[in-house]
Predict the structure of Anaphase-promoting complex subunit 4.
Amino acid sequence: MNSNDFASLATVQLSSPSRLLVSACCPDKDLLVIITRLGGHDRMSLWKMQGSKTWEVDVSTNSERIVGIAWSPDGRTIAVAHDPPSITLHSIQDGHSERVIPIPTSDALIPQLTDIWWFHQEKPEKSPIPDVFRRNNIITGSAHSVLRTLPLLDQLRDETKQLTATDLFAFQGSQTAARRAPSLPDVIKSWPALHPDPVAASINVPNITRTAENSIVDEVDDTNLDSILAVADRSGHLLCFLDGTYSIGSLKLGNSNTTTTVASLFKNPKSPVLLGYPVYNGVFTDLLPTHVSLSLLQGRKFRDFAKLSTTARELCWYVLRVVEEMRAAWVGSDTTTGARELGTKWIATYEAKQQEDYHVKPSGILDLTTLLVTDRPSEALADYLGSGPQMSERGMQKWESAVTEALVKLRDYSEKRLVPACQRLHLVLGEIQGWASLPTLYTAFEIPNETVDQCLSMLKQAILLGTWLAAAARREHNRFKEFITWLRYETVLLGPSSETPNTLRHDILEVNQYLMSGLEKSMIDKWFMGPVPTFVPQDLGIPGYDLTVKAALRTAREYLDRRDPTETPIDVPLDGFNDKSLECIERNLSALTGAFANCCREIFDRPSAAATRTATFSANFGSDLDQNTSDSSQQDKQASLVRERTTVDPSREDGYYVQYLVIHAPSASNSEHRSFVHFVRQRYGHDDSHVELVMLECCLRRGEEEDDVVGVDLVALEFFDDETIVIVYRTDEGEGYIGTLSYCELEYTNFQPAGYVRLSRESLIKSALQELNTGQLRSGYLPIKQSRGLKGCRSGAVSLAVNGRVGRRVACVLDSNGTTLETFDLEGDEGEEGNTTLDEER
């Protein structure tokens, strides 16, 4: 037995105990992920197969343990399942958290997560006829088709990417901590959405893939398109996400009367069909899978709805940020002072001076009004205008620029950002309303029609309030300019200079109006204070009748068809509208947009789970298992290692599968210290199954003689590709080896034990061992093809991770202490000695 058949890439001595997960190897790159325990929390690090560490990050502040990882189909993202339950996506470039995937809420608490998978979807062959109009699968006349023709909304400042001291002064590559995740409100976090696409939502973003010469955008990578990210928990539920981000609900495998977990999961690469293997009560596992068909994912309707949800999320998040920026500019925030506070603070300081220095009743507005009418200031006001705060030329310029900038921002943001974004949202929700009117779509998606109508009503209010705010800000700005001009005029009059001021340049009426409703308390405050608005358009004087062109033409025809042309035309009153009624109308945009965001998210919340809600299951549940199996499985369960590989049967039509199952179990006889590896090959389809079995004893033949064998201890195994399996074994002398054997070349025997309604994996092994003891089955020895000795792994458990993709055929072994990591090239030159030994500190 040659022990140097593989090339050793590296031997790394880790500084602290680590874990190597089964899915640690990147499918299309020479990279692997190692989990390290530090300070009661797991850290994730990315390593090259040659032994150098690329980065290391703290995956989450709330995560105590990493349950599992999965690689995205494009190999650029790592999905991580945590305990306590959470799901995050990390960039392969530097490990920073790109997104936190919201877990669907339910009445019951989410139990511990157990495993995670990310399945790709094979794409159909593209048509040889090019899409000359570049429709990109967008239906003409749909909301997205109209949004493509509209001008892009202005880009907002992204405050989530703030520079830190490390970003400014550290050398490139020295950053080890993860970037701070964007601070999103809960309503945006829990919104079901695909990967963000601001351009599809008609929002401008910098495009780094667009060249300056020809403005041609690079081809978009659609490898993750229609992929499914599945996460299993301890209650047997599968949380599914389309494209790895869009929540499509949860599935329950197994019988609700028993405690169920998911042993493994497989997805048909060409259709949305999942094959799950439930584990009942933690002791027996179905031999045949439970078929789950997500038929709603086969058409384009579900993805079109997901795109609408994503676009609505982008626009709603845009509206929330626009309103928040306007509120911060006018009212202020935790770190900035609002423009409205400057005038309030100035008049409050003057009234305090009246009371403290001159012992008179505070009457700031009255004194200013008297000065405006008579040009004769009171003693306190004359003193304050000459030496008060903000009365120097620099102070007045700062005051003027701050208020002007805030009012201009309110005006421009309302007209150019808020109102257009709400109009685009109205367009998206209008299409959702059209979906709700179709019986088939309404039944499948269960769109809340009343909620859609409520959101459309709120959008109309937001559009009216945004337009109203722009007009109010423009009027306030004009009055403020008149006020500042008058204040400068009076300051010159009261100054010691003998210079005669210029003629009056201010409007006394506008200045007086600003003193009454702008200086101390502005009408603009109502747009950011108060309860949620509940007005209707009729309260603003908008007629309640139909204003469409069709209705106007109909009314005109009715008038022209009358026999008496002198008859008085129809007169529509304004329902007693007057300007004074506007003062009592609530107009808090912040409260309105917050309520709208929650209401709008509810529209897409339940329909997003339509694919799993309408899923069809096979009848394979644990209740069909033989009672003897379930009663005895606890004491007879002896399998220590179970691995499986499922593929679509190439010799049959779609819907038929081939599963290879490898189970390592000791002998049922206590008198014999023998262990066996059971290789099971199943072919199953819609209504039939065929089981084949071969048993191999954990022994290796050393010579040509029949009895010249040596027993080995099998400690780890993983499927490598469609033909080979990689194993790690240990001899009686304690020497560890990594080897390969071909499971396809084994001589399988038909195996169908009688007496069971339906087999579990445990009962299959039990029956096979019984037939082996009675001589009905025969066993062989492990046919190792290639092997190589390990430097560690002489005792205890061993972790093994492999990658069998062509060009990336590698294997990684971590010893029981979690400190010695060995990597091998399974396609290396035979006899090549590995000579790379690295230390983590290097």
